[in-house]
Design brief:
The chain is built from 13 helices and 16 strands. The protein is α/β, with parallel strands linked by helices and about 425 residues long. Helix 7 crosses helix 11 and helix 10 packs across helix 12.
């Protein structure tokens, strides 16, 4: 449960029905941007969070093929639940047949029946629809939205986790960009490459109080891991640069790695100084992070998909105040307080510098970078954007927000132009 709470905050809209087609499942991930924002909007609005509509199964040869099927089947069994945060979470049943036109037609009919039933049961009328995954393109207009928002958070066609044709994904993506009142980009690189006249930069944020807290004890499970400790949390799959990690582990055997989160079968760690402890509840993460000396993001640098990423965990790392060493992710190249590496030598040098020369003033500075970039701020921004579009019509959606801000110093540079 998040510690950042402002129950009386006005998030800009109230009494609305909002349906979000998310790019992830509510049940199996630490909160993403939609999760954080919709929890807040649900305090004053009726919200349905639709778990990820798969963009096709990975290839049969993928080591995670059966793992992903089992996880999705467990999610199907829950179908529709109301969660403690006050919103509805739904996993509509569909078939992973998006590679054929017949399969897509079958899924469209199946999904529409389920969604219309849920809308009737839960009282969703004239919804604002927020799409964050291209595979929802075929059904959103049939739901007759009062307003359609499209959030682009990844380079979808570059996702190696799906066997679906990149041409189909690009077709869906273009269709949504043409239909949406506004296209919200969550990454600087995605935003800057866009030529959409209705683009909007929706910067990521952080649950600052949750990660900045210093009270409490270190989790007993990790308290005896020798220091110094390099830490990473989040799902570990093909984005991880395991080769670099293994090289660093061998060259610096006195450094120990604490790895927290789910793990793909693609990722195997062999060095004895790796401590993989699996996923932990979001609410308990601070107890584990206290034992970390340097937070790291060892992502592969040759991967197109990750190069467009805007990993929220970097902001969460900064909120802890601990030193942060990351691969050259475009999103954070100019973010103060972050050490960037490009090879194993630079990684080792950056960590050594952090361990030897970090100060309390450095810690306070890193926290200041993200202190005011909270999910309360971002939820209010989204609520106000929706309100403006509903009030003034689609012409007001022709807004371009310049991502010149760094995390924590949100500068709303918005230019409204008539089409």
């Amino acid at each position: 449960m998040e510690t950042e709470r402002t129950p009386q905050m006005d998030f800009g809209i109230s009494g609305r029905s909002i349906i979000c087609f998310a790019g992830e499942d509510w049940w199996y991930h630490h909160p993403h941007s939609k999760n954080h924002i919709l929890k807040r909007l649900a305090r004053q609005n009726k919200v349905l969070f639709v778990n990820s509509l798969t963009m096709g199964l990975p290839s049969f040869s993928n080591p995670d093929f059966f793992l992903k099927i089992r996880r999705k089947l467990r999610s199907y069994m829950r179908w529709l639940r109301k969660v403690p945060e006050g919103l509805y979470v739904m996993t509509p049943v569909s078939f992973p047949l998006y590679g054929s036109s017949v399969g897509r037609t079958i899924n469209r009919c199946l999904l529409l029946v389920q969604l219309r039933l849920v809308a009737l049961l839960c009282g969703f009328r004239k919804p604002v629809i927020w799409v964050a995954i291209p595979s929802a393109a075929d059904i959103v207009q049939a739901l007759k939205p009062e307003l359609l928002l499209y959030q682009v958070s990844d380079k979808y066609e570059a996702n190696e986790d799906s066997a679906l044709s990149s041409d189909i994904i690009r077709q869906w993506d273009q269709q949504l960009k043409e239909q949406a009142a506004v296209v919200m980009y969550s990454g600087r690189k995605l935003f800057q490459e866009s030529d959409s006249p209705r683009r909007y930069f929706l910067e990521q944020a952080v649950d600052f109080d949750h990660f900045a807290t210093e009270a409490g004890q270190t989790a007993s499970e990790v308290a005896n891991i020798p220091r110094p400790v390099l830490g990473y949390f989040g799902y570990m799959d093909y984005v991880m640069d395991v080769v670099l990690m293994e090289e660093v582990a061998k060259r610096r055997p006195e450094w120990h790695w604490l790895l927290i989160g789910g793990k793909s079968n693609l990722v195997q760690f062999n060095s004895p100084n790796f401590h993989y402890i699996g996923p932990k509840p979001y609410a308990e993460l601070p107890k584990y992070l206290r034992h970390i000396d340097v937070c790291v993001l060892p992502w592969s640098q040759g991967n197109t998909f990750t190069s467009y990423g805007s990993a929220i965990k970097v902001r969460e790392y900064l909120a802890t105040g601990k030193p942060v060493v990351i691969s050259p992710l475009y999103e954070y190249l100019e973010t103060p307080g972050v050490r960037i590496y490009r090879n194993a030598d630079e990684f080792i040098s950056a960590v050594e510098d952090a361990l030897l020369n970090d100060t309390q003033a450095n810690r306070a500075f890193r926290q200041s970078v993200v202190r005011n970039c909270t999910w309360d701020v971002r939820a209010r921004e989204v609520g106000q954007l929706i309100k403006r579009l509903l009030t003034n019509g689609i012409h007001d959606a022709h807004a371009t927000q310049d991502p010149r801000s760094v995390a924590g110093t949100q500068q709303e540079v918005v230019t409204n132009t008539q089409p």
